[in-house]
Amino acid sequence: MQETLLRDHLASLEIAEAEATLHLLLTRGLPHSLHPTRLRQLAGEASGLSEWLVAESEKTAGSLAEAASLLTPPPGPGCRSHPLAHWVTRRAGELALAPLNQQARQLREQWSELDPSERCLWHQLLTGGFRSPVKTTTLARSIARLSGHRAEAIAWRMLASRVPVGELLTPAQTLDTHEVPFPEPYSPWPRGEPPPEAESPVSDWVFEWLWDPAPSQLVRGPGGVALWSAEGELLNGAHAAVMEAAARLPDGTTLQGWIDLPGEGHFLVHQVVKARGCDLVRMSGTERRGVVAALLTAATRSPMASSGQGELFMDPLATPSPPTLLATTPLTPSSWEEARGLLASAHRQGAVGLLLTRQTPLPAGHPGPAGPLAWEAPELSCMAALTSFERLPDEREDGGGSGLRWTLAARTPTGWLPVATLDPGREIPSIPELQGWIEAQISGRHGPVRTLPPGQLFEIRFKGVQHSRRHKAGLQLVAPRLARWAPSHTPGEASTVEALLQLAPPIPR
């Protein structure tokens, strides 16, 4: 739905307006024209309120941008309406270059031309607080549907401001895409149980850990290197070491595997989809591992030293750089019983199951599964309390979302820490008893977020736990989903953060 709305909106705009809109949605930013402290001061002067009242208004509204937009005088009856391009290309620059003693006058003039909702956005842009509400993947797909390009080509052009935003809207026949390292079409691996031992002995298969049922693709093309998720999202920005190593691969190489699992800064290679432009996806497990080993050996950085006269030579005493492209390690169960034991221990390894690939291709017409086969471990579960929610526009193309984002937390000795942020779907939030409790128990407002006391518990199912420095609880649930409301459970029965951390794989020493 969001893709369609965005495409239709861009199609209705003049080219200058469309460029200004894309400029903001791509978060390429505006000149940082106004410090938040200065905005707080000017809003207080315009409203006649003291500093502490402005601070209280900011707490109530949830953000300085929204509080300042409500405190300042309303626009006059004859206020002018300017298009977005006027504000982005002209007015922001004027304010950024204005001397301090003229900023107040210019900002008052701008307030007189904007209504409160427009002022809120304008304050976010001026103070650097604006965050694009649209995912890059969604934006690329919307532009692709409008211009006729492939979404991957748009995402590649967006990367590092490769082209002016206006060129993203040009018709398909006018944009050169031959250098774009496109991913191969994604086909999900079949999921399920392996065939009975009588039909297929364990020795017929190559076993590996399944880190994620949806692998990424690392592509080396004529225009550079691209790391694509299974959903078509470009992941280059956060993995510089992987990009550097992949740049040493031959042109026309496509690797399939997983990023940052289980280590940091690694790409685990499951198979070579293409090598020098040749399709290799139908190789047997044994052949595939040989090609992977040869490619990764060639991509490993050779230790170099300087002769002191500007020449480089191989130094046999130098320590090689740690490899960032790694082949997955095969597992060697001797029986299906032992293979099931490996499956039971998958969560402790940080994996979600086992990936099975045939040692040799099946003959034509054979009824058995050809592989790879994703053999997933049973889901884990925990009890967590609903501690806040946020109302959002539905981003799903099929309109199947709830328009809500719930934050659920686990217990600690001193309180609660969030462990999952989920779309609860439509069924659970529509329960009248639960809906009434949520509306009656709102204890705080922080912008669009509403906080709640931890009084209602829910069962969360997930495929694993990973250590995470980015999350307050120190962990991240893998593929969490809301299973059910548990009204009979009390907050004291909620899972603890300590118990969830025990499900995570050990941190490498």
Concise summary:
Helix content is 31%, strand content 21%. By secondary structure, the chain is of the alpha+beta class. The chain has three domains: 100 residues, DNA ligase, ATP-dependent, N-terminal domain (DNA ligase i, domain 1); 157 residues, D-amino Acid Aminotransferase, Chain A, domain 1 (2-Layer Sandwich); 122 residues, Nucleic acid-binding proteins (OB fold (Dihydrolipoamide Acetyltransferase, E2P)).
Please outline the helices and strands.
Blueprint: H1 2-11, H2 15-25, H3 36-47, H4 51-61, H5 64-71, H6 84-97, H7 100-111, H8 116-127, H9 136-147, H10 151-158, E1 205-210, E2 216-221, E3 224-228, H11 240-246, E4 253-259, E5 267-275, E6 278-279, H12 285-299, E7 304-306, E8 312-314, E9 325-327, H13 336-344, H14 346-349, E10 353-358, E11 373-376, E12 380-391, E13 404-412, E14 415-422, H15 432-440, E15 444-446, E16 449-451, E17 457-462, E18 464-467, E19 475-478, E20 481-485, H16 497-501
Description:
Helix 9 (136-147) packs across helix 10. Helix content is 31%, strand content 21%. The chain is built from 16 helices and 20 strands. The protein is α+β, with helices and mostly antiparallel strands and 509 residues long.
